[in-house]
Input
Amino acid sequence: MPVKVYNTMTGKKEDFTPDAPARVKMYVCGPTVYDLSHIGHARSAVAFDVIQRYLRYSGYEVDFTKNYTDIDDKIINRANKDGVDWKEISERYIKAYDEDMASLGVEVPGRRPRATETIGKIIELIGTLIGKGSAYVMDGDVYYSVRKFSGYGKLSGRNIEELESGARVEVDERKADPLDFALWKKSKPNEPSWESPWGGGRPGWHIECSAMCIALLGETIDIHGGGKDLVFPHHENEIAQSEAATGKPFVRYWLHNGFVNIESEKMSKSIGNILLIRDALKGHTPESVRLFLLSSHYRSPIDYTKDSLKEAEAKAERFYRTLRRMEEEWPDILNKTTDPARLKERLKPVRAAMDDDFNTAGAIGMIFEEVAKANRMMDEAEKGKPGDAFKEKLPAVKAVFKEAGKFLGVFAKTPEEYFDELKSRARLPKEEVERLMEEREEARRKKDFKKADAIRSDLLKQGITLEDTPLGTKWSA
RNA sequence: GGCGGCGUACCCAAGUGGCAAGGGAGCAGUCUGCAAAACUGCCAUCCAGCGGUUCGAAUCCGCUCGCCGCCUCCA
Output
């Protein structure tokens, strides 16, 4: 069964087959590094992380590239505002981005090119475009001639006439046509500048992605991804530049992720409702943030509300509590290895969901069906003698969890790791909690339930929940 | 105005032709000293509305209503 992917270019789900068998060339537009990353960056990164992981899981070798846009007007503005060198800004926020992504379990892409490391290729590409008559020089700037490219608008479903009539007031009068966009921007004094045949300047935003893509992955790549907002004009322009330069199809499958809204509103600096990844992680486990992002299909908009991360966290806890129960109550049975054929069979519903345009929400639903089944089986087994079927099935469930964890990047921790994460944010030190629990245990032994309950409710006020189990009392924050 | 998307229970959310996954919340029960957790049962005869196609539609087509995104930097 081939993986099906929704291709923005055709507006349809298509069977995915890479150009070269078993090898996928994949490029995702990375961040412009001028500020801390927000939950929207996290969504894009997590979505393509899962896509990349799942393709590899499905047997493809994935050449995964994600760039950093480390030179741009916004970076220069930020540097001026902070009174530091632009390089310091880009370095600072590349580091911050990497940290945020690591905390969300996003795997490091195989290649992470920076625009400023690709200047040579960019200049070369612009030169080619000028040579072919697709671009023109105007007083130190270079512009791309949109009208020369007959396919312009094919990705975003626009045509030149519509764009023309809808064009906003054009500030830059030097352009021959309002639709044209900058490939190379002449630098002003005291601005970062690279030498080029057209004088000192810096690359425009769109050209860097074309250059990095072509330089690192080749003239035709399999998958190009990014946020929905990049469809127009960024990706449309990338197609125009790349195809005009190479004469070959640029991208075979275009994938775009949906937005994260905050309380039904678009995140924006002007509304002031930006949710930084760091802030989201303050009150919640990274696992629950990732689970929240994967609980909707990657192309749908998701709405962040004050309860959504709590719900995701409840979900994560349900999973790890079940896994902990399995491991603690049935350690011997769980050690059994599961027959690969059997595992494949059990994994089918999860894979069917993933094969259908990376339907992580559906796959997670299937995982929770397994969770419910596992609990039911264990309840049953506790009542009588665990049968042979149980001894086969329980390890199989765990094996399914393990496999799904590989491509979802959630459900992959040990319960201890997960609950330690939770405990680490408790308001009381671990030792204090354990002392109080011991005190309560003593009271319970003496049947002084009044005292025992008082300790429990005091701890609850501190955000600590106690749970008495046959294997002793457990706590979580 | 142009282009695109969405509308599934109290909330979140899968499902795109064959009798509505999953999670959260809620209610009742089993278990427990009591809780918690877990389990069981209940919780959409119905998928914005109205028509149409079909043996059969939440799923296809048309219209209506509502919401949102892109068209300017943006994940």
Summary: Chain A has a mean pLDDT of 91.
